[in-house]
Write a structure and sequence with these properties.
The complex is a heterodimer. Chain A is an alpha+beta fold. In chain A, 33% of the residues lie in helices and 25% in strands. In chain A, a hairpin with a 2-residue loop joins strand 4 and strand 5. The chains are: A alpha+beta, B alpha+beta. At the A-B interface, helix 11 of A face helix 19 of B.
Chain lengths: 265, 789
Amino acid sequence: MYAFDYHRPASLAEAAQLLAGNPDAKLLAGGQTYIPTLKQRLAKPAAVIDLGRIAELRGIREEAGGVTIGATTPHAEVANSPIVKRVIPALAALAEGIGDPQVRNRGTIGGSIANNDPAADYPAAVVGLGATVRTSKGRAIAADDFFTGMFETALAPDEIVTAVHFPKPEKAAYAKFPNPASRYAIVGVFVAKTAGGVRVAVTGASPCVFRATALEQALAASWSAAAIDGVTIDPSNLNSDIHAQADYRAHLIKVMAKRAIEAAG
Amino acid sequence: MTEKGIGARVPRKEDLRFITGRGRYTDDINQPGQAYAVFVRSPYAHARIVRIDKSSALAMPGVLAVLDGQDVAADGLGNLVCGWLVKSKDGSPMKMGKHPLLAQEKVRYVGDRVAVVIADTYAQAKDAAEALAVEYEELPAVVELAQAHDAPALVHDEVPHNLCYDWELGDKAAVEAAFAKAHHVTRMELVNNRLVPNAMEPRAAIGHYDSGQDAYTLYLTSQNPHVHRLVMSAFIGIAPEHKLRVVAPDVGGGFGSKIFIYGEECVVLWASKKIGGRPVKWTAERSESFLSDAHGRDHVTTAELALDREGNFLALRVNTKANLGGYMSTFSSCIPTYLYATLLAGQYKTPAIYCDVQAYYTNTAPVDAYRGAGRPEASFLIETLVDQAAIEMRMDPAEIRRKNFIPKTAFPYQTPVALVYDTGDYEACLDEALRLVDYAGFPARRAESERRGKLRGIGISCYIEACGIAPSAVVGSLGAGVGLWESAKVRFTHTGKVQVLTGTHTHGQGHETTFSQLVADKLGVAYEDVEVIHGDTEKTPVGMGTYGSRSLAVGGEAIVKACDKIIAKGKKIAAHLLEASEADIEFKDGKFTVAGTDKSKTIGEVVFAAYVPHNYPAGLEPGMEEGAFFDPPNFTFPAGSYVCEVEVDPQTGVVDIARFVAVDDFGNVVNPLIVEGQVHGGLAQGIGQALLEGARYDESGQLLTGSYMDYCMPRADDVPSFEVVTARGTPAAANSLGVKGCGEAGAIGAPAAVINAIRNAIGVRVEMPATPERVWRAIQSSPLAKAAE
């Protein structure tokens, strides 16, 4: 780890001010990606701003029939939250399947989506449920606009995720095919039947989470696993690596989608 | 007293400190004035070192020294050596490329040691290592084993075709004659996948030169501290052997990877003197371990089995290409030869066997012994080949094995590949395994799985291994540079407590418990009164260390011999105290008794007399401390039958291990609890090789699987609850305990059982690791599986 300045602001306003004054600073939430990155000297920040002590960024509440989750709420809290379990059980189940107990007790939803790892689980839920990402600049960014590319988001350099609001779906489920080594998603598919229509979000398979529109159309016509039998997933934009070739990932998207549909009921 | 003796399920005495975090590992040790070493490693698989400019690194804060290969050469230090000479078919010796402590002229794999930076703090050493300016001229890399022979590049310029040796074993003419008259030939090409050892504790070392004493101390993660001392003094020339103390304290797993003499540990010892005698510490980061610990396995093999009409094996012909990596590691030459081809008879009476092995250098990390070392490769080959033969001959896989087993009446049995098996009852193990798994009930279980959309398969593996390494004269005649005896000392204190000093080393095996049981049993003392001391060349007698499932079969027997000497001396003392003839003294359960009387002395009384010899036999030395060496007359041959049942998800290719039954013949068992634990761990590693683990380099020689994000270690949820039976022993003949060794069996026998079960499930053999993607692709090509879908 290289030397850096460390800040631990007590409020969001203070954090935003620090970030504005330190263009080379990095935000630290649960640190489940960033701390290993620092330890391997793969990052050399001038300063690190730790969001861990900002009370207003943490917590889960019911809002407008859905759920709002503060940015620094750890996965384990989401997984065990009676509110999330009642309103969007698929979201609690997804959080329960992230990483391992250590990761779930440190890693946060805001950190996960701001990092936008192509194989992370949360982006699938945010896109799949049509969630809204709220920020320190007062913006409410629609999920479809938030994830812009591999490790890229719509956040401005001096913008901090404050919370994510998830509307309540009619039905939803997430099915993940984990990488046996890292347990990140090789393919993760989040399906939801929402007021705005059917949404199918796929993570792990390509450089960035995406909506599988062909699957959405088939499911809009008929909400059943059999409905997607005839859909072909184009592997040309999918990842190929030592863990899975693109055609296998394309195949898994359908398999996981079916399992998710069956789980959603 | 003997409720904790031989055969008792005694919980391990060392576990309390391990589980409560009170073990003392090398990195836990800190010495006054300690400096830190960080190694600069090659980012290229193959490159010429054009220039190393130390100036900027030396100018960094806290830097005490920057040392490179030229400094090593200037100080006249020797190269790392491979201690086993293998000769090619034409009688020429293997071509050992130079392996300097720090690279000279060329680097030969990503992670090769280029220089070391020593600084006051770890962070300073790390910063300066990054600042060191090394200019390389990148060369084409030889990465793929299969292409090493004809590669345009040479790893060692003086080794044509990158071929280190081309070795053979067996009667080629007899094999060819048998193939000529065979009814059927089963042929198979297979890969034994490359593995990264991944001990929980990474390698670490603290070197210290004491200028006052002109003496050296090295703390390190070693399975054999005396071997480290020997090589560092005799071959590397860092310190004279009598001036070098090597201490291997608690060591968190080895699996073979901590047998070897690596450059880093030598360098920190040498560097301590270079900086004026401050201790120098180095602890590998996990990514360094991936790059630089010796890897395991990595064979490409063609195997053919000739059979007669009834399914009797007539002959076996094997050609193997073995990967040595960029340099020959300490025992690398004997792994794909004498620890591999000599086991190719397996449990079978195949009359003729021929094997030739070409060992190649490639621009990858060195490859050496890893849990099983050669024997897993042999066992996997035989057991997948025999299974394939059964399929082709339309025979039951259990029946074809039974038909060809060496019968229990045939021992001792001379195989056509040099070894003489002492004892065994292979059919008994197979019968028991099939009974436990309910072999006859498998079709019903398969049908039940099918109803749930799953493909169920069952696979058998009947492994054999040669352990208790090793009879010195035998290995010497085959090229070994050392003797493989073991030594022990048993020392009583005045108060009747016992210190057992052993030349073996425990790094997870539970020697402190097993050896205490042994001594409690032999001397009739309380188990709690025995302390086992190991791992320090200044405390323990000379030893050869722990590997090859040798510690009990060789080291334990040395302890028994020392106990025998204690008893013999005790009889003299007891005879004197009891005013009887020495010939009339019997020793049992800690008591010396005059035969046929109730006159006796406890061993404690006799020991006290030995230390307070006021009333003592004339001419007898006082004291009660005896040492012994044991050189085994033969290897031991643990064997067993494993049966694995898998359930395959045809939609994803995911393999779930539903059952795993292991029936092992380890001869007599001292502590069944420890033995079962060793089997569990071995099976997990074997399953890891079969399903999860595989080191991969890209075409330029970069390690793609350099962290746990990409290299998959087995975890608790990857393995089933094992069904293990270890009480089927035929006692070994090579030691009085009748023990065979159990540390490697699971890793040796498990892979074939898993792969055979998958083949049984989907109709196609899948190469290891049988990842979901590979299994899924195999299913796409399998008519059997398609029908089931």
